[in-house]
Amino acid sequence: MIVVSNVSHRIGRAPILTDISLTLEKGGVTALIGPNGAGKSTLLSLIARLTPLQAGTITVDGLAVATTPGRTLARRLAVLPQDSAIDARLTVTELVGFGRFPHGAGRLTDADRAIVAASLQRFDLGDLAGRFIDTLSGGQRQRALVAMAHAQATDYLLLDEPLNNLDMQHARALMRTLRELADTERRTVLVVLHDINHAMAHADRVVALKDGRIAADGPPAAVAVPDVLERIFGYAMRVVDVDGDPVVLHHR
Amino acid sequence: MADRTTVSGSDAAGTSATRPVEAVFDRRMALLLLVALALSAAYMTVSLRGNIAFALELRAIRLVALWQVAVAVAVSTVLFQTLTQNRILTPAIMGMDALYLLGQTALVFLLGGLGYAGLDPALKFAAESLIMTTMAATLFAPMLKGRTDMTLMLLTGVVLGILFRSLAALLARLIDPNAFAVVQSVSFADFNTLRRDLVWPALAVTALGTAVAWRARHLLDVAALGRARAVGLGLDWTRTVPALLVLVALLVAVSTALVGPVALLGLIVVAGAERLIGSRRHARLLPAACLVGISILVGGQLVLQHGLGGASALGIVVDFAGGLLFLALLAGGRR
Ligand SMILES: Nc1ncnc2c1ncn2[C@@H]1O[C@H](COP(=O)(O)OP(=O)(O)OP(=O)(O)O)[C@@H](O)[C@H]1O
Ligand SMILES: [Mg+2]
């Protein structure tokens, strides 16, 4: 369980997050949505201790992220930061292999290699395994980075806009994989999404941030309501029912 | 590198994932080791004349010093480049050895030439290293917070380097001419005027520092991914990185104390090693950089001493070659 309580964050004098409290039960996919600059990435980095906490507390399975040794946390929680620039000459396999670092001392065992191979397979990277990451396309690199987080084999997976650069087929495949991880392995996934229909279709719960506060929180059906969406995103959009699922016509 | 590009075929899925990671000691590394050893052997034996025992002893001490400087420069540069995530800047380019010179000049200024010369070398060396390490840590640690911007770093380094050098020059002007000669002698890298008294203490520091760096090789691989990713993988950035930076400062202090600044050697050594072994994995890069450094220094000294009749100081030649390489790297983009 991830418990965020009364977290506030400022950069300089600007308030970025204001008094956020949020509990993520174990298992399930939670989508974090909201306009640009709402504070989604900030919240994710705070939970993943990439940014030091200023006010409030965050615990992962009861471990306070501010004080728990980095390695202990890295065995429970993996994070894909939004900024995916990576400046190292590595092959895809080597990159994904780094996901095993928290579990060993840097030397890969046979078991580690099997997990790496499985992650490569899962994200359709088999053909690219030996390629250097600086020779990949944007979407291929994004998949390699997601595979690295996956190879970390943690109970909690935090992904900041993993669909960036992905084509429709791979975006769908990724969301289905996340769903499957939650359903079959009881993993807990927190994923920042801009494609609201992916959030509606694949998440159990949708949390919306706006101006550093939680603007909506509930199952997709409760958030996919024109009024709520307008309050979050600032313009009116239609929601239609397709075979019982809400589809947001945000682009019209 | 060749063996890695061949796995990009479609059959790579299973094979390359299960294939053991390339060995640390492969043919290329063996070749580097062979070159370094051969050059060292040549250095020891070429045109030995007169009192052979005496000459051998002198050469052996110099050889140890050459090795030690090469290793200190190679390791400190690799660490520095990894921690700051760039391939162009070295501790020397960032003004670290200028900082050392400033410390020297300040000491001469405060104590006078005689007082300076009268200092217990080991004690002085320890004090210098300590001061330098503290200053380097306070100066460079802020740059490790957040994302390091290359342009900003380069600018900072150049400005700091100029600042330290100008301060040193200012102090040098204020001290009397005799004392100034002392300052001059520590300002240029020269293996002929090697500080023999410092060889053994410096060797101990370098060996220790290199051992620490080697033990941290996997951590360094992770650090190379950048702060956010490294923290995500469990690296304790705020503790590990400053500690490693202190190590860099210590190694720079050691090699500068021993022979003076060899500003661009680190750049040549690491860029060369990376190209030769085609990898930035520290388990391979660290030893390769050390071996390339040894080959360059020992080979260079060999040529200077026997080919050019000791006409020039090795540091100047190395800096000239390094300057050309630096321009080439800048022109060729970040890598
Ligand atoms: N280093 C910084 N200095 C100043 N302001 C910052 C800094 N980093 C982030 N911010 C501000 O904090 C706010 C929240 O940023 P954050 O990255 O969390 O937004 P986000 O919801 O992830 O947006 P996006 O959808 O664009 O990724 C933004 O208004 C941003 O401008
Ligand atoms: Mg963001």
Provide structural commentary:
- The complex is a heterodimer of chains A (252) and B (335).
- Chain A is built from nine helices and twelve strands.
- Chain A has 252 residues and is α/β, with parallel strands linked by helices.
- In chain A, the strands form three sheets. Chain A has a six-stranded mixed beta sheet with strand order 6-7-8-3-9-10, sandwiched between helices. A four-stranded antiparallel beta sheet of chain A has the order 2-1-4-5, with helices on one face. Chain A has a two-stranded antiparallel sheet with strand order 11-12.
- In chain A, strand 1 and strand 2 form a beta hairpin.
- Chain A is globular, with a radius of gyration of 18 Å.
- Chain A starts with a strand and ends with a strand.
- Chain B is mainly alpha-helical and 335 residues long.
- In chain B, 76% of the residues lie in helices and 0% in strands.
- Chain B contains 15 helices and no strands.
- In chain B, helix 3 packs parallel to helix 14, helix 5 runs parallel beside helix 7 and helix 5 packs across helix 8.
- Chain B starts with a helix and ends with a helix.
- Chains A and B meet through helix 2, helix 3 and helix 4 of A and helix 2, helix 10 and helix 11 of B.
- The structure holds adenosine-5'-triphosphate (ATP) and magnesium ion.
- Adenosine-5'-triphosphate (ATP) binds next to helix 1 of chain A.
- Chain A: This is ATP-binding cassette domain-containing protein.
- Chain A: Belongs to the ABC transporter superfamily.
- Chain A: It is a peripheral membrane protein.
- Chain A: InterPro entries: AAA+_ATPase, ABC_transporter-like_ATP-bd, P-loop_NTPase, Siderophore_ABC-ATPase.
